[in-house]
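Worked example 2:
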Amino acid sequence: MMLSSLPAWQVRCLEEGAIAIGILALAGLTASLRKRWHPRPIPWRVPGEAEGWTDAAFAAGYPPFVSALFGTAALLGVLALSEYLRREAGHGPLRLSVAVGLGGIWSLAFWWFLARFAAVSLGWIQRRTDIGRGNLGAVVFPRLVRFVSFFVPAIGLIAVEGFPLPYLFRLVLHKILAIYAISLVGLAAGQTVAAAADLILRSHPFSQTDAVAGLRARKLHTQVLVASRALFFLIGLLTVAAILMLFSEVRHLGASLLASAGIVGVIGGLAAQRTIGNVFAGLQIAWTQPVRLGDVVVVEGQWGKIEEITLTYVVVAVWDQIRLVLPISYLLEHPFQNWTRNSSELLGTVHVFVDYSMPVEEMRKYLLEICRKNPLWDGRVAVTQVTHATERTMNVRLLVSAQDSSKLWDLRCAVREQMIAFVRERFPECLPKIRAEWDGVPDPAKSKLLDG
């Protein structure tokens, strides 16, 4: 059957289908050539860096170009199917002009390309300039890339609005643009808070050598992390609320809920009471700071370090690598030990039980010798005292000091091991013993039993 014998609309449908198939073949050929010329995979997410200009060109242009080809083929296929349904079945999707559809697809692809090109350029600036290598560049540039990757396509959506679209499409596009604009404002606010928090944390790192600086850093880290999470929650809440207010149905629902908020408000308040209490407890801990990140605590009989503080819970890293998760209000309602509240320096004791004949002065001298040779000792305290005595032994307490709890534990173990070895090797007669007195006169009754 010749094409000339077919109706014009059928010929047009066949032409659109053939062009769609040809474009799909072109997209496949493009993918094959890309693998030959540029074998490394190309991320479809907006890239932040590229090795050279070839990588930059492929990273910026390949995904938008291939996506536009597939979009064009899909558009032509949909138009052909729509025309067929409208002519043969009497119904079909709303038919757009080819010019409007192709213009919209390639316009979006162009603005997507600009977004990726801007991201690649920012990544190049970050790697090649002094500004990008510092703390400011390391914090600002990745977030700027993320924002640009969302902002530039919004301009493309605004450009698409200039096409002669049907009223329904234009109405949907207006809603999408409004949601996009509100989301961009929320994203910008969130990225600003994250960048400010990251800059503060980078400028005040934890110090392993200066105890005072480490204490200030842990205090600041706790406040910044909790405050930033509270701001993230507030920004997200306001963004979602602003988006919902775009729809009249939601506004009416909100007004009716506010008008009848008596019982519902009471029930909701009771249900959220504990959650809200935990949030306020988190804010209270952030500013009053009974604990900070990195503090050594004893809670629920477990020794560990504060690993994470959120608005609702606290994570304690126990010494055996178990994580103890506590509600944030627990730290305000129950007593616990904080070994590093004002300073990380600590005192620790070692108890040694020896016989009364042990010369304590020798133990005192040897303790000083142990501490001076051990790098874990901070040079503050090394005291030997007899703190208790029983009918069999005396309790010698060895008091030592270290810069933090981990070093103190290791120092105590070393002192205990070396002091026991010292007593065993130098004064074996002074090890704990049980005394018995014998007058030398045999007991006749016991002698008969033994002779038995």
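Strands lie at 296-299, 302-309, 313-318, 323-327, 337-338, 346-354, 377-389, 394-402. Residues 346-430 form a domain with the Alpha-Beta Plaits fold (CATH 3.30.70.100).
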